[in-house]
């Protein structure tokens, strides 16, 4: 009769329960029947009834691992996870190789469960199925246990190599570990098995984007859109890729259209809201950008990119105090290396002679911009030590109030406190009207000045230094794409050759300096950069010039910090620090801004700079 009842149970027949009860009436202590009645009740959703039957089964025979596992399932369904985990652990004590109990415990482990060891044991079980491995892997992925998830996904595809979703999720795991090459391999394997899988195409686009393949990302996003035009994810992803690669107004417009398409399909799509906010930020529509970033944060309050992007919108609008607070989200975006957690962060408390390390965190220009705060921290009673990029070490060594300067690559004693340079405006409460704009605050060392006094420079006219390009970094896609927008060619400065009585001096470094071999007609450029070893040399050279004209790169900050006249040619989506719709800046009193009036168009900028040079030349 028991065999017949079990057969009916497996067939889903309700009569199985009646047969179990008939058997139980004849044999009230039949543990298997009590267990099966519990399983039947559990499957029917009668959870309290199931718990009762299963506890009766265990009272008859507490040595059966599968009784314990079933009780754990009932307790989990009743919302009592800690009790459920205890039953799974007891089941494994009775039967260490019991796959169902291992899988159940691994889905919601606690720190004391030693989940990684359990997972390794589970993956070695020959009786474990691919579906069980996938379920465990999914739970580990959701819990953020990426190494465990990857192990389980790999075990699943080893058992069943044609499991598409396992490869897709293995790719997602690798992406979260920032191993984008492995992620791309996993997605490509999924697509070999299922060429029309839109999610795999979209995820592959994200992976190859991180591998600096912008065209590939664009193509894969479009493939995903074509396969599933009613899903918002690929539109949002493609909008992000298009915006990041934007070089003109049409590119920005297409990016906005794609993000709006995603939002029509899902009005609270976090990525689409954030990406559309970025487009509006780039286009100077700060109110709309702020609204979109705040909508993103309503949908996902801890979204680090949205918090950081909102900070940029607020800073660009001149709302510095709120902007500085949100700017701290930069540490959670994954774009900056982590700070040594063993160092004590300064939060503005009295220093009373304590040593505080102020350290660079981003580019050379950012360091030159914010190192102005070092003397202010020294005035608060701290012994200030700077850690900067090696090329800046000699230049900042002479700053007043600075006790010592190290290169970031140097080994140096641990300080009492540390603070990233770009966190100082927040801690010191900088507002628009309290920006420390006293210049100069940097001075080249005496040996550099002496060296450059002996270098020949062209005379008989205004000496004008030129920088037309930033720092191309092909291995860093985001930085390189921004660099493409901020950079021009030497030929874009051709109108300057029409201005009389100018003597041009090259300040351009790196690959773009090769353009000196073919300058615009009539533009004779003296090139002394072969003798430049670091920023101290560049600073001493700048002191011998009348004016520097530069795109928005580190030289702009250097010249501003030296208190020399500098004209900055700013891309349309200009940096937040230059605010909006003004040609001056409170950060550098000697700086004048020439902004693009259309994205990607330097023609008008070149003409306006030439006109300003004509006026300056006539006034001399």
Automatic annotation (TrEMBL):
**Which keywords does UniProt give here?**
TPR repeat
Q: Which domain of life is it from?
A: Bacteria
Residue ranges of TPR repeats:
65-98, 164-197, 270-303
Translocase found in the keyword field: no
Write down the Pfam families for this protein, in alphabetical order: TPR_14, TPR_16, TPR_19
Is the keyword Plastid assigned to this protein? Answer: no
Query: Residues of the signal sequence?
Result: none
Protein name stated in the entry: Peptide transporter
Give the organism, scientific name. Azospirillum thiophilum
């Amino acid at each position: 009769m028991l065999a017949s009842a079990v057969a009916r149970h497996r067939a889903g027949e309700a009569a199985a329960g009646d047969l179990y009860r008939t058997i139980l009436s004849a044999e009230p202590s039949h543990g298997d029947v009590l267990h099966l009645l519990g399983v039947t009740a559990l499957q029917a959703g009668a959870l309290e009834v199931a718990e009762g039957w299963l506890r009766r089964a265990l009272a008859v025979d507490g040595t059966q691992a599968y009784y314990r596992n079933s009780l754990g399932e009932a307790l989990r369904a009743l919302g009592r996870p800690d009790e459920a985990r205890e039953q799974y652990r007891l089941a494994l004590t009775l039967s260490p190789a019991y796959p169902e109990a291992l899988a159940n415990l691994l889905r919601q482990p606690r720190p004391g469960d030693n989940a990684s060891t359990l997972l390794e044991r589970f993956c070695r079980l020959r009786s474990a199925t691919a579906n069980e491995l996938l379920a465990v892997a999914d739970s580990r992925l959701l819990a953020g246990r990426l190494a465990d998830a990857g192990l389980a996904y790999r075990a699943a595809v080893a058992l069943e190599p044609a499991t598409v979703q396992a490869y897709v999720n293995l790719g997602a795991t690798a992406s979260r570990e920032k191993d984008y090459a492995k992620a791309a391999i996993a997605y490509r394997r999924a697509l070999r098995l299922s060429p029309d899988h839109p999610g795999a195409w979209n995820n592959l686009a994200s992976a190859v984007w991180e591998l600096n393949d912008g065209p590939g990302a664009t193509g894969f996003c479009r493939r995903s859109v074509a396969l599933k035009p009613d899903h918002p994810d690929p539109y949002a992803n493609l909008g992000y890729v298009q915006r990041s690669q934007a070089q003109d107004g049409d590119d920005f417009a297409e990016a906005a259209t794609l993000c709006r398409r995603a939002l029509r399909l899902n009005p609270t799509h976090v990525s689409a809201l954030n990406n559309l906010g970025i487009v509006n930020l780039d286009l100077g529509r700060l109110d709309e950008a702020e609204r979109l970033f705040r909508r993103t944060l309503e949908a996902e309050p801890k979204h680090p990119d949205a918090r950081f992007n909102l900070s940029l919108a607020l800073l660009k609008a001149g709302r510095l105090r709120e902007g500085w607070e949100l700017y701290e989200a930069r540490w959670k975006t994954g774009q900056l290396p982590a700070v040594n957690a063993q160092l004590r962060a300064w939060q503005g408390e009295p220093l009373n002679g304590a040593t505080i390390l102020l350290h660079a965190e981003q580019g050379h220009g950012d360091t030159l911009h914010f190192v102005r705060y070092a003397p202010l921290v020294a005035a608060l009673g701290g012994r200030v030590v700077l850690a900067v990029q090696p090329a800046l070490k000699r230049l900042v060594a002479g700053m007043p109030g600075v006790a010592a300067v190290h290169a970031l690559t140097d080994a140096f004693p641990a300080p009492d406190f540390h603070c990233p340079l770009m966190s100082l405006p927040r801690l010191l409460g900088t507002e628009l009207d309290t920006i420390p704009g006293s210049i100069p605050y940097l001075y080249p060392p005496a040996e550099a000045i002496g060296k450059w006094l002996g270098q020949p420079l062209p005379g008989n006219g205004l000496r004008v230094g030129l920088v037309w390009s930033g720092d191309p970094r092909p291995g860093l896609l985001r930085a390189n794409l921004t660099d493409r927008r901020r950079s021009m060619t030497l030929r874009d400065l051709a109108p300057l050759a029409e201005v009389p009585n100018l003597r041009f001096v090259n300040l351009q470094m790196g690959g773009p300096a090769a353009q000196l071999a073919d300058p615009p007609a009539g533009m004779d450029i003296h090139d002394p950069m072969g003798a430049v070893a670091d920023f101290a040399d560049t600073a001493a050279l700048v002191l011998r010039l009348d004016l520097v004209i530069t795109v928005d790169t580190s030289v702009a900050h250097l010249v501003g910090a030296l208190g020399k006249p500098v004209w900055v040619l700013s891309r349309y989506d200009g940096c937040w620090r230059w605010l909006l719709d003004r040609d001056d800046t409170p950060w550098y009193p000697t700086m004048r801004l020439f902004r693009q009036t259309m994205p990607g168009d330097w023609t008008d900028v070149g003409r306006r700079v030439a006109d300003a040079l004509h006026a300056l030349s006539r006034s001399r």
